[in-house]
Amino acid sequence: MLRRLVPELVRLCSASGPWQIERCAANAWPARHIEERDGWLLRHTPGVNRRRSNSALPLTGATPSIPALEAFYTARSL
Fold first, then answer.
1. Is the CB of residue 76 less than 8 Å from the CB of residue 49?
2. 10 Å Cβ neighbour count for 64?
3. CB–CB of 31/57 below 8 Å?
4. In this structure, are residues 31 and 53 in contact, taking their beta carbons and an 8 Å threshold?
5. pTM of the prediction?
6. What percent of the chain has pLDDT over 90?
7. Pick from 26, 29, 28: which is nearest to 41 by CA?
8. SS3 59
9. Are 29 and 52 in contact (CB under 8 A)?
10. What is the C-alpha separation between 11 and 63, in angstroms, rounded?
11. How far apart are CA 4 and CA 69, in angstroms?
């Protein structure tokens, strides 16, 4: 099964831009709260310490705002 699956995954990733791959990775590990704010994809899951569940991903084509990022996580005591 993996012999068929891995080449297809490599093909799909090769055809995608890095931002698409990052977005897919974020969607594959969902967080309870997801918000797009001022150039960021902000993610938070209360009570979970895994990095992917509490992460900030800069969005393509945007100039991310550090104060927006800090406000989001400060409001959640992170």
1. no
2. 15
3. no
4. yes
5. 0.66
6. 9
7. 26
8. coil
9. yes
10. 30
11. 40
